[in-house]
């Protein structure tokens, strides 16, 4: 399917899957439906992610075509009830001028949200595809593989061969820049006299100077590069926690950090394995996948990676 009339996307803590799916399948009059989970207020709630997505997509999707539904995050019965409400909402719109008397294309993006939400929505939408009440709906499912940088799309009845869309093609087609992805996380970058500062979009607080040397998009996620000069392993551990705190705020949980380490201490004062071990002991997972170190020893003739 090339474009959708309705996009239903489940929202988790990472806005990028919903953002890329929305860009890939939207046309002039696409209706976009976000489903976020009901949960206690937190620093990063899926409702807040939903609000950030609506703000970022308002120039692409008409504001009147942006909708949101709240859903329980664990009760299958309640989740399926929300899925039926979403389907009923779609039916209530299908006699509008641009949808009259034709087949209506629907995408269900189940990348975000909880596993229970994905299971509940997929089950109800799959049943709807076989129900005569919804016979005008042609329902497809989509899922983003972050590791492969692909959106997999197939008819929800499972009879069609899945199509794959490259996320990189979406980034290039829409000329997406890192600043736009940072805005998706509720922040804005300010360039003042060649220096970068970041600030929460709705905040009146003084902008903070950015601690990263470079910010760019790598395999659909945001990557950050920082230069650090240290003498001992413990110094890098302390730097890492500060860098990772802001990298996750600005780029989400999938953000990567590339740290160029200049070690000017004594031989043996810094140990890469000890650094990773120190982070693992705090419960931080997938450290070697998310944090890349390039180490330069000042007392040697060439760097060691």
Helix/strand layout:
Elements: E1 6-10, H1 16-25, E2 31-37, H2 46-57, E3 66-71, H3 76-93, E4 104-109, H4 115-128, E5 137-145, E6 150-155, E7 163-166, H5 167-173, H6 178-184, E8 187-192, E9 195-200, E10 208-209, E11 214-218, E12 221-230, H7 233-251, E13 256-263, H8 272-280, H9 287-290, E14 291-297
Helix pairs in contact: 3-4, 7-8
What labels would you give this structure?
305 residues; alpha/beta; 7-stranded mixed beta sheet; 4-stranded mixed beta sheet; 29% strand; disordered C terminus
What is Rg? 22 Å
Tally of helical runs: 9
Helical percent range?
A: 25-40%
Q: Given the helix and strand composition, which structural class is it?
A: alpha/beta
Parts with pLDDT < 50 across at least 5 consecutive residues: 299-305
Mean pLDDT: 84
First-last Cα distance? 45 Å
Care to describe what's here?
The protein is of the alpha/beta class and 305 residues long. Helices cover 33% and strands 29% of the residues. The protein contains 9 helices and 14 strands. The strands form 3 sheets. The chain has a 7-stranded mixed β-sheet, sandwiched between helices. It has a 4-stranded mixed β-sheet with strand order 11-12-13-14. Helix 3 packs across helix 4 and helix 7 crosses helix 8. The chain is elongated. The termini are far apart. 31% of the residues are buried. The C terminus is likely disordered.
């Amino acid at each position: 399917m090339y474009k959708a009339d309705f996009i239903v996307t489940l929202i988790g803590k990472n806005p990028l899957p919903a953002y890329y799916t929305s860009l890939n399948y939207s046309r002039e009059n696409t209706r976009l439906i976000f489903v976020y989970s009901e949960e206690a207020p937190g620093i990063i709630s899926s409702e807040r992610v939903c609000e950030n997505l609506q703000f970022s997509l308002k120039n692409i999707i008409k504001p009147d075509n942006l909708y949101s539904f709240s859903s329980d995050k664990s009760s299958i019965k309640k989740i399926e009830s929300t899925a039926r409400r979403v389907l009923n909402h779609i039916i209530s719109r299908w006699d509008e001028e641009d949808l009259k008397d034709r087949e209506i294309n629907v995408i269900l993006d189940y990348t975000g949200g909880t596993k229970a939400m994905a299971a509940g929505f997929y089950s109800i939408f799959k049943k709807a595809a076989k129900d005569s009440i919804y016979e005008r709906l042609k329902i497809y499912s989509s899922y983003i593989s972050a590791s492969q940088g692909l959106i997999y799309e197939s008819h929800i009845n499972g009879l069609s061969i899945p199509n794959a869309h490259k996320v990189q093609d979406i980034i290039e087609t829409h000329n997406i820049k890192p600043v736009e992805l940072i805005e998706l996380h509720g922040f804005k970058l300010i360039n003042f006299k060649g220096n970068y500062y970041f600030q929460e979009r709705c905040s009146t607080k003084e902008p903070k100077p950015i601690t990263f040397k470079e910010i760019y998009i790598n395999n659909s996620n945001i990557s950050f590069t920082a230069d650090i000069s240290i003498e001992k392993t413990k110094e890098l551990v302390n730097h890492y926690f500060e860098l990772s705190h802001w990298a996750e705020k600005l780029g989400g949980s999938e953000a990567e950090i590339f740290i160029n380490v200049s070690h000017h201490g004594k031989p043996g004062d810094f140990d890469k394995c000890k650094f990773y071990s120190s982070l693992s002991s705090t419960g931080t997972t997938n450290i070697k996948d998310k944090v890349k170190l390039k180490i330069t020893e000042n007392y040697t003739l060439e760097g060691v990676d």
